[in-house]
Amino acid sequence: MTENQPPADSDNPDAISEQAMTWFVRLRAESVAVDERRQFQIWHQADPAHREAYAEIVAFWEDADFHTTLDAATLSPPMLRCSTPSNSPRRRFGIASGAKPLLAAAASLVIAAIVYQPALSCWQADYCTAVGEIKTVQLSDGSHVTLNSGTALNVNMRNGLRHIQLARGEAFFEVQHDPQHPFQVDGRYSNTRVLGTRFVVREDADSDIVSVVSGVVEVSRNRQNPATLKANDSIAVDARHQSEVSHQSTGNATAWLKGSASFDNAPLKAVIAEIGRYRRGSLIIRNQALQDLKVSGRFDIRDTDKTLESLQQTLPIRIYRLTPWLVVIV
C-alpha cells in the first residue's frame, strides 16, 4: 500500500465514503502517479458501492449550489429537510433546491478535514481511531491506552523502552508500574515521563495539555525544566513555553471516556470545536457575535446531531445542515 492510498475496503458505508473522498482528492493532485490511477481503477471496479460513493462525491463537487459564494448564501430552514427527488444529488447531499449554500470557499476545507488529517495519520500509525471512534488497546507491558476520536499514536516497546509518540488527538494512559523502565509520552510540544499512573495527553491546535487523574508525572518541553504534576493537576505546553501547573478536577478532561463532553461556562466556539472532533466534516459559526456565548452542561458525543439540537433549543442560534459534512451556525 502506498503512502497516499486509501485504507483497506470495509463493508461500512462511512468507510467506503471516506475511501471515495480520499481518492477524489488524491486524483486531483498534481503529483498523482500512474500507479495510483491504476490502484484507483482497481478499487473503483471492485464493488458497486465504491462506484456509487465516488459518483456521489463527484456530483457533490459539480453541483451548481456548491460553487456559489459564501456571501451570497440563502439558507434553508434550520436543520435542513429538502423535498427534491431521492435520486437527485441535491437530495442525497441535503442541499435544498432553493438554497444558495456557501460552498465554494468551504469545498477544500470540508473535504480536507474529512479525508487528509485522520486518514494520513492512520496510515502512518501503530494505533488509530476514526472520527467518532473511541477504543482501548493493551500494550505489551500491560499498560492500557484509550484513544479518543481521530487519534493516532506510535508505540516503541523494544529493548527495554516504553515510548509513545502521540501523532494526533488525545489519549488516556493507564501505565503499568515499572521502576526500571519509565514510560514516556511525547506530544507535539510536550514530554511526559512516568513510572505508573493514569493521565491524559491532548493535542490542541496550539498546545499540548497534560492532565493527571492519579499518580505523579513529570512534564517538560524539550525535556528541560520538568514540572511535577499530581492528581487533578494540569499543564499546557506550546511551542515556546509551558504554563504554570493548575489544580482542578480532571472530570472535564476525562468526560469523553464515558461518552460525553462537559463544559463549565465555556464559549460556544470552544464547544463547537469540541463537538466537531466527533463528527466528519466541518461545523462553522458564521455569525461571529455568537462565538463567545457561554455554555455549561454535559453533552453526548456519541450523538452529535442530538447535541447540536440541544444547543439550538437553549441558545439564540439557528443551525443549518447544508450537506452531511457541512453545518452552519448563525
What features would you describe in this structure?
This protein has 330 residues and is an alpha+beta fold. The protein has 3 domains: 13-123, no CATH class; 127-253, Jelly Rolls (Sandwich); 257-329, 3-Layer(bab) Sandwich (Phage tail protein beta-alpha-beta fold), CATH 3.55.50. 26% of the residues lie in helices and 29% in strands. The chain is built from 8 helices and 19 strands. It has helices at 13-26, 34-46, 48-62, 89-92, 107-123, 251-254, 268-276, 304-314; strands spanning 127-128, 135-138, 144-147, 152-156, 163-168, 170-174, 183-186, 190-194, 198-203, 207-214, 217-221, 224-229, 233-238, 246-247, 260-267, 282-285, 294-300, 319-323, 326-329. Strands 1-4-5-7-8-11-12 form a 7-stranded mixed β-sheet. Strands 2-3-6-9-10-13-14 form a 7-stranded antiparallel β-sheet, with no helix packed on it. A hairpin with a 3-residue loop joins strand 9 and strand 10 (207-214). It is globular and about 55 Å long. The model is unreliable at 1-9 and 65-109 (pLDDT under 50). Residues 18-58 form the FecR N-terminal domain. This is FecR domain-containing protein. Residues 126-218 form the FecR protein domain. InterPro entries: FecR, FecR_N, Ferrdict_sens_TM.
Work out the count of structural domains: 3
Helix content: 25-40%
Q: Which fold name fills CATH's third level, the topology of the largest domain?
A: Jelly Rolls
Widest sheet: strand ordering: 1-4-5-7-8-11-12
Distance between the termini: 43 Å
The backbone outline, from C-alpha atoms, is: globular
Protein name: FecR domain-containing protein
Domain FecR N-terminal: 18-58
InterPro entries: FecR (IPR006860), FecR_N (IPR032623), Ferrdict_sens_TM (IPR012373)
Domain FecR protein: 126-218
